User: Fold these one by one.
Assistant:
Number 1:
Amino acid sequence: MAQGFAKKDFADPGYQDWTPTYANLTVGNGTVTARYIQIGTLVHVYWRMVLGSTSVIGTAPTFSMPVAAGTGVADNNQTLGRALMSEAGVGNWNGSVRMRAGDLFQVKADDASNTYARDADVTATVPLTWAADDVFSFIATYEAATSALIEMGANNDHGALSGLTDDDHSAYPAYGEWADWSPTLTNITIGNGTQFARYTQIGKTVHVWFHLTFGSSTSMDGSPSISLPVTANTSYPSTVHPLGSCILHEGGSTRKIGAVIMDDGNSQFDLFAQNANSTYAALSGITFSVPFTWGTNDVVAFTATYEAATAV
């Protein structure tokens, strides 16, 4: 067995440019920055557009992904990241990034006009009346359909280093490769619902996505939580550290916006709705009737990123 292996021996794949294909969005003379990085099957992207005088934002714009997505969930409920939409000299509006079928991103605006915050289609006038010098941007993380090798050796193995044998290669983790995990759910009964739970760990960084579609015997009680796939670092403060965002979808109706928080014991994801019934949105506990009365075909989905206790 080869000795002296260190994480730094892996080549840095680096960020790359990509040129998205757009629907319901015209760049015109605007300026776009679109960059992504892929490690194994982990893909992280950021996109930013400064509008020009001939740029046009249409209704429900979509953006092609730089790398084909895995065969998980693509039903517009899986949240992948967050968006920021800025009106020059006025203010900023938040939004979320969704996965759409066909390897597409779609950005939704956060709508705080109801008791619980929900999403709304971005249009020429939502969440602002778009004009030159306004900025549209987002970040997202997702699982790719195929892996990008970090460094290639003679045997074309993941993380291969020059001069190592097949036995040597098998001893090293497949960085960025996603795997299933079977979380323990508290105050959620899956019943005949359908659950997807995936995670990947790179060093001490853990990315996860979770998606549950309710069946007729699925139930939601108060204060739902979901166990972590990997033990978290103990430095997280109790109940005040955000890890990601979630979507709470009432089947056939609206999608509410929520948050993912580290629980007191650093062992679970706690899920919350956003109560928009005040000047500033606040977190509100989820119950069997909050943010709506849960039933068949409803969905709870989230993504999160956190620091693990130990590295791989």
Note: The chain is about 0% helix and 50% strand.
Number 2:
Amino acid sequence: MNRHLEELIELSKLDRAIDDFNPVVEKLQSKLDRKRDKKEEIEKLKLDLEATIQETKVKISSFESQIKVLKEQLNSSAKREKLVKSEKELKALRTESELAKEGYILLFNEGGLGFGFKLFLARIRSKEGINGLGGI
């Protein structure tokens, strides 16, 4: 019986040692969970940043195309100004040129990329009937 008692005592010690590991395992599991949560946050932030970068690239592309259109309008106005035959045509071309310059200003002041350009086009359209050239 002594041998069985010793085995029982040994099993009891092993059981206690295993029970002592439970808080350690729980603590490590908690750390692991926090690390996983942090990893998920970082991955979400990365995706958000990638989306923002993509949106910014689209805006830059739009901005550059709007600048190109405005530059062409200014160049066109300058070329047509040389061919002007009357004061009325000169005034209309200068108005058109001023509107194109306003388009640049609106593009930069409004953050460009949409609203400023639309406002600029609306102003040009409202002036089309006035300037005598029929538009751009």
Note: The CA atoms of residues 47 and 53 lie 10 Å apart.
Number 3:
Amino acid sequence: MPATSSDVEDAKLDVDPPPRRLRCQARVAGDERVLEAGRHRSDGRPSRAPIIGIDHIQVAAPRGCEEEARAFHGRLLGLEEIPKPEPLRSRGGVWFRAGEQELHVGVEERFSPARKAHPGLADGLDAVRVALTAAGHEVADDDLPPGARRLHVHDPFGNRLEIRDA
């Protein structure tokens, strides 16, 4: 006897449903940090992830940017260059240390400079201003919020940077 349309609509497949992943389950076996972040408070709401600081920030730059980045961030601003991990070196770019944090200059194929978003660096503002202007960079002083001593400058790729008095 041929199947009718109601037979087809009523047909049920004998397929196990996909396993559901709970928020507190690790996405990668053994990743205890994910399990920690998924713990719940006594009221049932998920607890916040235990973020304790900022490891690094990244600004984008065009392919072939490395020497200009070294000249600006390394020699002019005095940041210490640190080696990129071997698996990432072929991507281009260069990394620097700024105190306990890092500044990564990463290559972006369809590069567009960040005009508003910016890293905020802390240093001796007056000495940095002298060095930047002597090197031909235009600096813009900014005293907002009241009491702040800071300036803005653009790196060789057009990305905005903020320098605050340390």
Note: Residues 45 and 113 are 39 Å apart (CA to CA).
